[in-house]
Amino acid sequence: MAVATSAVVLIERISKSVKNPKPDAIRLHKANTDGEWVRQGDLYFEIIAKPKNALNKIQKFDGQLAEGSQRGSRHIINNVKKVEVFRSLRSGPEAGYILHTLEDIEVNHPDHGTVCIEADMWIDVTYQLNMVSNAVRAVRD
After folding, report:
1. What is the pLDDT of residue 137?
2. Tally of domains in the chain
3. Structural domain of residue 33, as residue ranges?
4. pLDDT band at residue 85, thresholds of 50, 70 and 90?
5. Residue 107, SS3?
6. 56 in any annotated domain
7. 102-122: per-residue pLDDT in tens?
8. Which pTM does this prediction carry?
9. What angle do CA 83, 90, 128 make, to 5 degrees?
10. How far is the C-alpha of 79 from the C-alpha of 76, rounded, in Å?
11. Is residue 10 in some structural domain?
12. Do the beta carbons of residue 120 and residue 105 sit within 8 Å?
């Protein structure tokens, strides 16, 4: 009986200590090639070549890549001074941003872990899509 009780206590302690462990950081670096991508929850980070078209730079950017104030929306660039942020060249609901990293940056999220991006990379940030009432829309946590 004592063994069963201590096993239950141990299982309860473990279950409380390992809630939603964050995954290891994902790294995008220059060894990767255009078209390669990583996912952080409902955001995708795709390596692209420097766009040839003129880009619309966002002058004041708070660092949050997803709309909303919920925990799931907190895809946050750790230092906005290290990155140029542009409006997406896409026009659909998947359109997010284009990032040009001036220095190494991290995009942090409380549940989905961190995406680390090396300096001088061009990244197309897009949103996962979902079908709602026969219409496509960006997923929002």
Report:
1. 47
2. 1
3. 23-138
4. very high
5. strand
6. yes
7. 999 999 998 888 999 999 999
8. 0.77
9. 85
10. 9
11. no
12. no
- What is the C-alpha radius of gyration for the chain, rounded to an integer number of angstroms? 19
Alpha carbon of residue 13 to chain centroid? 31
Interval 85-92 mean pLDDT: 92
Residue 9 in domain: no
Q: How confident is the model over 4-11, as a mean pLDDT?
A: 65
- The tokens 């999220």 sit on which residue? 109
Cα dihedral value 123, 24, 68, 53, nearest 10: 0
Neighbouring residues of 134: CB distance < 8 A, sequence distance ≥ 6: none
Token pair of 78 as six digits: 């750790």
Distance, CA of 108 to CA of 77 (rounded, Å): 6
Nearest CA to 83 out of 52, 107, 48, 111 is that of: 107
In this structure, is residue 94 part of a structural domain? yes
